[in-house]
Amino acid sequence: MNLLDTLVNPTSIPEHYRTMKQAELEERVRGIKARLGKKLFIPGHHYQKDEVIKFADAIGDSLKLAQYSAENKDAESIVFCGVHFMAETADILTTEKQTVYLPDMRAGCSMADMADIYQTERAWQELTSVFGDTMIPLTYVNSTAAIKAFVGRFNGATVTSGNAEKMVKWALERKQRLVFLPDQHLGRNTAYNLGIKLEEMAIWDPINSRLEAQVESDKIKVILWKGHCSVHENFTVENIQQIRSQFPEMNIIVHPECRREVVALSDYAGSTNYIIDRIRESEPGSAWAIGTEMNLVKRIIHDYPDRHIVSLNPHMCPCLTMNRIDLPHLTWCLDQIEQGTAQEKVIKVDEEIAKDAKLALNRMLELA
Predict the structure, then answer these.
(1) Whole-angstrom distance, CA of residue 213 vs CA of residue 217
(2) Structure confidence by residue, pLDDT tens digits, 218-252
(3) pLDDT tens across 95-122, in order?
């Protein structure tokens, strides 16, 4: 069953998991973890709900969790508590003896879905007709396996929000210009930090197959895919103005998936791990407004009660697709694994796609 089929006709969770008390769900998860032991590994992304995170064997960003999964050779079943593209990456990096499961197959990523392989191949053809053999592609790890494979085939690499500057430098040492997928904001913020002017960046609109540029084509250095994170794009200049007015002493720290104008007005910007580390290393009594996903912000607030911490946007919702994975779905998935009936929750990347995607991942990992 592919992802589209799952979204159109999802396999519904049995009702008794919905009505089961939390204590019973937790007891069942603990029991299965104890019985399966080292054969089971549960990685949990930073943006997951606390009810899921409490059972995670490792917590981190998508790539780090995939690497943890690959390093854990004893694990036969990897239950990835994140979203679809993250589980794909884990499947690409793990062995044939390991099986990756996603507790709810509807847990996707709107950003990753903004660049499909058909749009990307068509865009590459059209851009090549304009720029010739002067381009190299980079893709954020928040992309589908098919996009990673495309980038791998054309000598490009993946990037994370933590190593994006290093990877953009690497790309521009190899070609005159780069195509950055699928998040325009991370691409723009990274290129700007490296001294590339905003007018030297163009946007590729995949819906209308159109290049949006302010200058002649020969002056374009970066082509940004018109995609974004639905969570981080909702932080605004008005949010910053409100914080500055209400709490003048407060530090503002945001993720580089935020809009350029938001990053420019913030005090700090960096990856999820950067944000976590910055708060951890800050002085007790310091004040912070954080521009990232709400589940993580709430967890940071809980972990550091001696600091004044708020969300940059107090009306921000958690990542809706990430939150499809909850304790009932986790319990259901573990029950099925133990019973040998979890086939519809398996994430398996086509062998040829996985081979090319691994090229893109390894080029990044070799540099990192």
Answers:
(1) 8
(2) 999 999 999 999 999 999 999 999 999 999 999 99
(3) 999 999 999 999 999 999 999 999 999 9
Looking at the structure, tell me whether residues 242 and 267 fall in a common domain: yes
Q: How many domains are contained in the chain?
A: 3
**Whether residue 220 is found in the same domain as residue 236:** no
Residues 116 and 205 in one domain: yes
Give the distance from CA 347 to its chain's centroid. Answer: 17
Regarding pTM above 0.90, the answer is yes
In a shared domain, residues 119 and 54 = no
Q: Which residue range forms the structural domain that includes residue 212? A: 112-230
The side-by-side arrangement of strands in the sheet containing 287-291 is 268-269, 251-254, 287-291, 308-311
194 with 98, same domain? no
Q: Are residues 226 and 239 in the same domain?
A: no
Contacts of 1 (CB under 8 A, 6+ apart): 105, 344
Angle between helices 84-93 and 351-367 (to 10 degrees): 80
* Separation of alpha carbons 72 and 294, rounded Å: 30
Q: CATH number for the domain including 181?
A: 3.40.50.10800
**Alpha-helix runs per DSSP H in the chain:** 3-8, 15-19, 22-36, 50-53, 62-71, 84-93, 110-113, 117-131, 145-153, 164-172, 184-193, 237-246, 260-265, 272-281, 294-303, 327-339, 351-367
Give tens-digit pLDDT for 39-95. 999 999 999 999 999 999 999 998 899 999 999 999 999 999 999 999 999 999 999
Name residue 211's beta-bridge partners.
204
Phi, psi of 180, rounded to the nearest 5 degrees: -110, 120
